[in-house]
Specification:
Bound molecules: adenosine-5'-triphosphate
Largest sheet: 5 strands, parallel
CATH architecture of the largest domain: 3-Layer(aba) Sandwich
Shape: globular
Number of helices: 20
Number of domains: 4
């Protein structure tokens, strides 16, 4: 069917390309260079589909969309934008765009979108989120996610599509790729944004405590359960529950979670009555769950329950185009925190593009922060990047033989192995047991104090130690408990 397509873009090249491509398919194309001409055509009842750029000389098309939707509710609008941010994608979708395409776009995708839009006109009922609802919360000036690579654009498009739904999402990506940030964006821009976002990391909770952590427990449910405990499901009521590192969930807890997802109800440990589970679930993992299913480590039925909408976050090394934007963003954050302003020399960006970033965006973030703190030069060049990369404290994800999956005990084992190997012709000095335990005790106590801002009572509670015992150990290890002012 030959249709009339209205195109609005102030870039002449785009108007020409679209007119040719759509003209060849037999459509009539009318192209305008500003928003007011487009609006005039729409008012005159012209056109079967609109394709519009966002930023035009006279008006931002995002402001025009609601008017078009009001006047011609059945006229599909395809938005193309070179702004390429999550916020643009979400705004366009929210205001009722039929499709959002980031520039530069693939012509085949555009033609596909036009065809779907025309099919939609013939058979209405399409999915432009209606009614176009404007979210006050969805206009943070700060962008939640940085990066304009095609891979990130695709992720923004998916997030925008999910904004008005409660669909379960499973995010997959290496450590540090931004899984939690995506989960937060889904919550912050979604309809549950006024309710809590609760994150639980399955890898960080002892196996035997996972169920009570998630579902809560009744008083007396187990030794130590002196009071009723509220679980994360209840805490997140009305909001979003982010199950991080879902691949680390023990199989029994998986069974229980599956039952909750199937029935929509949960019971606290030691309790009977079912409580309605009003949470949106977003899960994330860096593991290959399909492989785990084959090996019997993950329940297939749970996987399908969670994998309703899969999102794959690519590692940073596969989207080097994002590195410059991200690096500048982190430098700007450091500057906001009172550090000296710094700029990046092109040679620094080139160098960073060839590095492999095993710790992904988190590693880049740490590197930029370190450079902001430790280097006095105001322009960062290749040499500084090289030096900073070389002195990098190897994090588990950065170590060549460590990989992101290394557990604490594996890493200790690796260290001890190195220690024994350092004495090839004999044994280390005796008294090893106490020496090694102290090695572990020291960072554990220091970090606990740091986490409780030097509050010894809270640190003792956190550690499950008697206060006097903690004080004694701090003295023995010569750790100065300094209380930070804030
Ligand atoms: N696209 C992005 N834009 C801005 N900051 C980002 C982006 N991706 C990641 N970050 C930052 O990098 C750090 C790591 O991100 P995040 O914690 O979301 O990763 P993750 O994949 O959940 O990691 P892990 O699997 O280790 O928990 C955070 O400080 C986050 O703010």
């Amino acid at each position: 069917m030959a249709a009339t397509i209205l195109v609005a873009d102030d870039d002449r090249a785009i108007r020409v390309v679209l007119s040719q491509a759509l003209g060849q398919l037999g459509h009539n194309v009318r192209a305008a260079s500003d928003a007011s001409t487009l609006w005039q055509w729409v008012r005159e009842g012209e056109g079967d589909v609109v394709i519009t750029d966002v930023v035009m000389p006279d008006e931002n098309a995002l402001d025009l969309i609601p008017r078009i939707r009001e006047r011609r509710p059945n006229l599909p609008i395809i938005v193309m934008s070179a702004q390429n941010t999550l916020v643009t994608a979400i705004r366009a979708t929210e205001r009722g765009a039929f499709e959002y395409l980031a520039k530069p776009f693939d012509l085949t995708n555009l033609v596909g979108a036009v065809e779907r839009a025309l099919a939609e006109v013939k058979e209405p009922g399409h999915a432009a989120p209606a009614p176009p609802e404007d979210h006050p919360a969805s206009s943070p000036d700060a962008l939640p996610l940085i990066g304009r690579s095609p891979a990130m654009q695709e992720i923004y498009r998916v997030i925008a599509r999910l904004v008005n739904t409660d669909m379960t999402v499973l995010i997959h990506g290496e450590s540090g790729t931004g899984k939690e940030l995506v989960a937060r964006a889904l919550h912050d821009f979604g309809r549950r944004r006024d309710k809590p976002f609760v994150a639980v990391n399955m890898a960080a909770i002892p196996r035997e405590l996972i169920e009570s952590e998630l579902f809560g427990h009744e008083k007396g449910a187990f030794t130590g359960a002196v009071n009723r405990g509220i679980g994360r499901f209840e805490q997140a009521a009305g909001g979003t529950l982010f199950l991080d590192e879902i691949g680390d969930m023990p199989i029994e807890a998986q069974t229980r979670l599956l039952r909750v997802l199937q029935s929509g109800e949960f019971s606290p440990v030691g309790g009977r009555q079912g409580i309605r589970a009003d949470v949106r679930i977003i899960a994330a993992t860096h593991r290959d769950l399909r492989l785990m299913i084959q090996q019997g480590g993950f329940r297939e039925d749970l996987f399908y329950r969670l994998n309703v909408v899969p999102i794959r976050l690519p590692p940073l090394r596969q989207r080097p185009e994002d590195i410059a934007d991200l690096a500048r963003h982190f430098l700007a954050l450091a500057q906001r925190d009172g550090l000296m302003p710094k700029t990046l020399d092109p040679s620094a960006i080139e160098r960073m593009k060839t590095y492999s970033w095993p710790g992904n965006v988190r590693e880049l973030e740490n590197l930029m922060r370190r450079m902001a703190v430790l280097y006095s030069e105001s322009v960062i060049d290749r040499r500084i990047v090289n030096t900073a990369l070389a002195e990098q404290e190897p994090s588990p994800a950065v170590r060549p033989n460590g990989g992101g999956d290394e557990t604490l005990s594996q890493s200790v084992e690796r260290h001890l192995d190195g220690y024994f190997k350092a004495h090839p012709h004999g044994l280390p000095a005796s008294g090893l047991y106490d020496r090694i335990l102290r090695e572990v005790e020291r960072p554990l106590l220091a970090l606990s104090l740091q986490a409780t801002r030097g509050n010894q009572i809270r640190a003792a509670e956190l550690l499950g130690l008697n206060r006097n015992t903690l004080r004694k150990k701090l003295r023995e290890l010569d750790l100065q408990p300094s209380r930070s002012t804030k």
